[in-house]
């Protein structure tokens, strides 16, 4: 496995863990429900968000998913991270909760860059 694949899969697996596995396993906990409520969102928003996060992660990690759908998944995660940072900043001010989504966004951008780097070398 070459360096580009290692970087791509490392970044993508981190996204999959933070945005797919963890939300799927913890979304129904009281802490998660309180977090959604604290930010001013209705409870059903948290449920919908988890469904779309899991679907987005599946789109990123399954190689057979069409490229256009992968692009939409990447775009959805960009919006998710930006709005998470904005929501936390608006409710709680600048803190670790505000900055953490931006750190994960950087990891997503690494995945995206290397996804394109790997796919451009195939042609």
Protein traits:
84% helix; 123 residues; mainly alpha
Q: Briefly, what is this?
A:
The chain has 123 residues and is an all-alpha fold. The chain has five helices and no strands.
Structure description:
There is one protein chain. The chain has one domain (3-120). Helices cover 84% and strands 0% of the residues. The protein is built from five helices and no strands. The protein has helices at 3-26, 30-38, 43-61, 67-92, 96-120. α1 (3-26) packs across α5 and α3 (43-61) runs antiparallel to α4. It is globular.
Q: Tell me what portion of residues adopts beta-strand conformation.
A: under 5%
Query: How far apart are the first and last residues' alpha carbons, in Å?
Result: 18 Å
Tally of individual helices: 5
N-to-C series of helices and strands: HHHHH
Tell me, what's the shape? Answer: globular
The biggest beta sheet reads: none
Q: If you compute it from the alpha carbons, what radius of gyration comes out, rounded to the nearest whole angstrom?
A: 15 Å
Model regions low in confidence, pLDDT < 50 over at least 5 residues: none
Mean pLDDT: 94
Number of E strands: 0
Helix content: over 70%
Question: How many structural units, i.e. domains?
Answer: 1
Structural class: mainly alpha
